[in-house]
Amino acid sequence: xxxxxxxxxxxxxxxxxxxxxxxxxxxxxxxxxxxxxxxxxxxxxxxxxxxxxxxxxxxxxxxxxxxxxxxxxxxxxxxxxxxxxxxxxxxxxxxxxxxxxxxxxxxxxxxxxxxxxxxxxxxxxxxxxxxxxxxxxxxxxxxxxxxxxxxxxxxxxxxxxxxxxxxxxxxxxxxxxxxxxxxxxxxxxxxxxxxxxxxxxxxxxxxxxxxxxxxxxxxxxxxxxxxxxxxxxxxxxxxxxxxxxxxxxxxxxxxxxxxxxxxxxxxxxxxxxxxxxxxxxxxxxxxxxxxxxxxxxxxxxxxxxxxxxxxxxxxxxxxxxxxxxxxxxxxxxxxxxxxxxxxxxxxxxxxxxxxxxxxxx
Amino acid sequence: xxxxxxxxxxxxxxxxxxxxxxxxxxxxxxxxxxxxxxxxxxxxxxxxxxxxxxxxxxxxxxxxxxxxxxxxxxxxxxxxxxxxxxxxxxxxxxxxxxxxxxxxxxxxxxxxxxxxxxxxxxxxxxxxxxxxxxxxxxxxxxxxxxxxxxxxxxxxxxxxxxxxxxxxxxxxxxxxxxxxxxxxxxxxxxxxxxxxxxxxxxxxxxxxxxxxxxxxxxxxxxxxxxxxxxxxxxxxxxxxxxxxxxxxxxxxxxxxxxxxxxxxxxxxxxxxxxxxxxxxxxxxxxxxxxxxxxxxxxxxxxxxxxxxxxxxxxxxxxxxxxxxxxxxxxxxxxxxxxxxxxxxxxxxxxxxxxxxxxxxxxxx
Lengths: 361, 364
Known about the structure:
The structure holds two protein chains of two kinds.
Chain A: H1 3-19, H2 23-28, E1 30-35, H3 45-59, E2 64-69, H4 76-87, E3 92-95, H5 101-110, E4 115-119, E5 128-133, H6 135-149, E6 154-159, H7 164-180, E7 185-190, H8 197-209, E8 214-217, H9 223-231, E9 234-239, E10 250-256, H10 259-270, E11 278-281, E12 288-290, H11 299-314, E13 324-325, E14 331-333, H12 341-345, E15 354-355
Helix pairs in contact in A: 3-10, 4-5, 6-7, 6-11, 8-9
Chain B: E1 7-11, E2 14-20, H1 26-50, H2 55-64, H3 70-95, H4 103-120, H5 129-155, H6 159-179, H7 214-231, H8 233-243, H9 245-250, H10 255-282, H11 293-303, H12 308-332, H13 336-353, H14 355-358, E3 359-363
Antiparallel strand pairs in B: 1-2, 2-3
């Protein structure tokens, strides 16, 4: 331990002692901290991670103490926040956005006794694990629903940043959409932010003006749902059940459910069995789920969606089953094969039916 | 009784009125920011009490605890360096009524140019990497600020609008670069460049801390700004142009010359700040390289009364409000919005207390 981490550790220990009611109590409690990219009130990504934090508190009453820091920019500030949380005696720190990757690794190297969990990243260390969810499974199901419900055959997709997770989501959605409505197309607008209600709403309006009659989003605010409700069209929510923001518009949402994973990892720290690793779960474990279907969905559409969901769990259906040809006509997945995990995790091409181009090298 | 002009408070027979001052006492210029700070702390305490947190404990957690150790002070510096550097550059223009609102964009272009150099020299750099990056950042910022300068002097386009709008262009350009040409080839298509190599990273002032030698750039900029303002003809021209544009015209000062000078200096400082951010605490190009330093620096410039020393102090105050807000979330479990409210209160009181410079309060 360097003199600096020692000092930080001692300061943290002193602060922890002076803050809590009793010293013995502070020692018993496992301290778990969270860093969020958006406000906890975004009703999307950060909100669902915070629900996971609350689930930890509920699962271990009196045995854990949780802390969070919200709206932390991905950049120079993240490292200080993570370091502060480590210095304040937290045992387990969840950093919940891909932009926290390098800062998490830097702080982890300086604090070898603290465990870190980085969401959606790909770099690990002895005390840094990564975790993510197979959101594209959810996109496949809502793609099928969209294909059945669209009249114009044009779907608007409000996207955040063209990382593989977002691109594979667009592709999974489009493939499913075109499987039930071959002439359909997906129009994508990137807002270059995870959470920006103003831009998301503006993108939603622009897509509707371009002829889209269903909206879906890979951004975190309920603004697009509200626009859909105003304009009387259908939409899919993101990360949490967003039905209250548009009871008529909201068909379903892809729900992120971190509760079980967070509880398990906290338990591992308590039992001293925590190990670094990489987790990528979907419908099978419930890390990805769907909000209740809107009553307007016809019975056959619900049946189609549910069958697809169950088939994915059973391994009978895969979001990326060949033959898949990209926009330029190049074959990406051969007939009868499915895309491998590394292929999905580094996806940087669009399937046919997506309008617009990805930034190229 | 009909209300009298200037009556601001009438209660239980107690009346106060504002009376224009003929002269502002010198001590008051320095006293009002302190008064504003005191009022902010006081209303902050009230805010904490309303939130159910012990006000003294909260104020301690917000303002003292974050800087109670060496790490805290060095982090305060990390946050204050870009704010001070940009504000120093902008303050010259603000004195002459040249409103460069686009420092955030100039910072971004500076970061792009410096980062481009770092990536071009990846694993083949040397001691000269950093100076070259600094030069690239400086030139990038200057070149980008030259656009609003040209538009203003040639086409009389308002620089507030053009510089602000160019900010978004710069940010989108950076976003394009990190998702495309400058993307890390080993990075699974995540929109980030490679991490810079050791030659392209600012050496820390103290081993193990993030505070870097950008500190020196701030010191040089502050001394230079002070010298320009008090000892040079340029400083005199800026002040005259700001206070009395007509007089400046009669004196034969070139208006386009002033506009060019102010915008280029502001752009250069912002570009250099961008280089320091990517070569310092960030260490790579990312879609966002600044949490709004270019905009916050405008507040810093005015809080510091456009005075170089004042700006350095103001940069520390604003930096503390950010760090304090993070610390308050960690130790007090207060919402991030509390920090924003605090900054708002501070600005409100600074502007409100400025009233005392022009008016005195009299009892009737």
